[in-house]
Specification:
CATH topology of the largest domain: subunit c (vma5p) of the yeast v-atpase, domain 2
Distance between the termini: 17 Å
Radius of gyration: 34 Å
Strand order of the largest sheet: 2-11-1-14
Helix content: 40-55%
Number of helices: 10
Order of helices and strands: EHEHHEEHHEEHEEEHEHEHEEHE
Shape: rod-shaped
Number of domains: 3
Number of strands: 14
């Protein structure tokens, strides 16, 4: 397991044999209190029982196989939760909005895992472990696929709206002309004449005025007037015979003047405005769908991930401590500033559980031995620890 700085609140799910609990009173409560003292936790709320039911156990070979599959599924489930958070970050403007959206069963994710209870109504514990894992996997991957599809639609709608907005704010050489041109800027209803719009760089306006009438035959003299300007361009509207338009626009491009593809028709301005209104409405509608699905996906995916974690802890505990299952699992939030020290303190206290895998140095500190670990490490596909411990970052 990794002990790098987490991207969110870090928790350990730790499983220990019931026999290590201090004598006297309820073993679970005694172990919770002992762990709090061992790790010097600042708050009693930083350690709590993590209740795991006893599942239907198959053969040892099945458990070993499930251990490998659970390690892979754990990473996949976490990736789905992380992708969902990325979507929330993309659709909300502030970190506060994102955090408010990350709820599990209408409560903060940290509150959910601290009070975790297996959902027996949805995931019956009398079912085989493989069936439970398959059920959780199908559920979370379906959520992920649905969110990907909706988010893709949102990104398309957002891109379309951005393209419309760019047309409203760009230079006269590229921007939409719906709020600029008027009907009187065009020759309307002529069988032979056509008005062309040309965006000319300001540094070349004198050249354009001097030369546009002679670029091609049959340009109406003095027909071009400056109908708009910005910091870079002036928009002109020369009129010429329709059959000369293709050659005229080609000559304009050669001179680095920018002909605009725009023909006046009744209703063209209204159509362009409707296009923007439609893009805005579409983006808002798909944004709402994405927000609703992302919030629901985060809740359901985080729940599925937590349930999978509990199965993984159970399987590893049985493999590590044997049958019948007799272990205590707890949830610990180590101090952020001393995560590595917390792990070291746990190893120092419970390293003896690994037998020959860990020994003590001359100062009495527990140290990990390298020999004889390869076989078990291959079985569980993880760094060997003296006890069952998994981290869970609440993203």
């Amino acid at each position: 397991m990794s002990f790098l700085a987490p991207s969110g609140p870090l928790y350990y799910i730790i499983s220990l044999p019931s026999s290590v609990a201090p004598a006297g009173g309820d073993p679970e409560s005694a172990l919770v209190k002992d762990l709090s003292a061992t790790l010097s936790l600042p708050s009693k709320d930083d350690v709590s029982p993590f209740l795991i039911p006893h599942f239907k156990i198959g053969t040892l070979d099945q458990l070993v196989q499930q251990s490998e599959e659970l390690a892979k599924a754990d990473g996949q489930f976490e990736a789905v939760v992380n992708r969902t958070v990325d979507v929330l970050k993309a659709v909300y403007d502030s970190k506060e909005e994102v955090n408010a959206a990350k709820t599990v069963s209408d409560k903060p994710a940290e509150t959910y895992i601290k009070s975790f209870q297996w959902n027996t109504a949805k995931y019956r514990v009398d079912k085989p472990l493989a069936e439970l894992v398959d059920l959780l996997s199908k559920e979370i991957f379906a959520l992920d696929a649905d969110l990907k599809a909706v988010y893709s639609n949102y990104m398309i709608a957002k891109s379309n709206l951005a393209a419309v907005d760019r047309k409203q704010t760009g230079a006269l050489s590229t921007r939409s002309l719906q709020d600029i041109v008027k009907k009187e800027n065009f020759v309307i209803g002529s069988e032979y004449l056509e008005t062309v719009l040309v965006a000319v760089p300001k540094s070349q306006t004198k050249t354009f005025i001097r030369e546009y009438e002679t670029l091609v035959p049959m340009v109406v003299p003095r027909s071009a007037s400056a109908i708009a300007s910005d910091d870079e361009f002036v928009l002109y509207n020369p009129t010429l015979f329709r059959k000369s338009v293709p050659e005229f626009t080609h000559k304009c491009r050669e001179n680095k003047w920018y002909p605009r593809e725009f023909k006046w028709t009744d209703g063209v301005i209204e159509d362009l405005k409707k296009e923007k209104d439609k893009a805005i409405e579409q983006e808002r509608r798909v944004w709402g769908e994405t927000v609703r699905l992302a919030r629901a996906t985060y809740s359901d995916a985080f729940m599925a991930w937590t349930h999978l974690k509990s199965i993984r802890v159970f399987v590893e505990s049985v493999l590590r401590y044997g049958l019948p299952p007799d272990f205590i699992s707890v949830l610990v939030k180590p101090p952020t500033a001393s995560i590595t020290k917390a792990k070291a303190a746990l190893t120092q206290k419970y390293g003896y559980l690994a037998g020959n895998a860990f020994s003590k140095d001359k100062k009495g500190k527990v140290v990990q031995e390298d020999q004889n670990l390869q076989e078990y490490s291959a079985i569980v596909d993880m760094e060997y620890e003296a006890f069952v411990i998994y981290d869970m970052v609440v993203v």
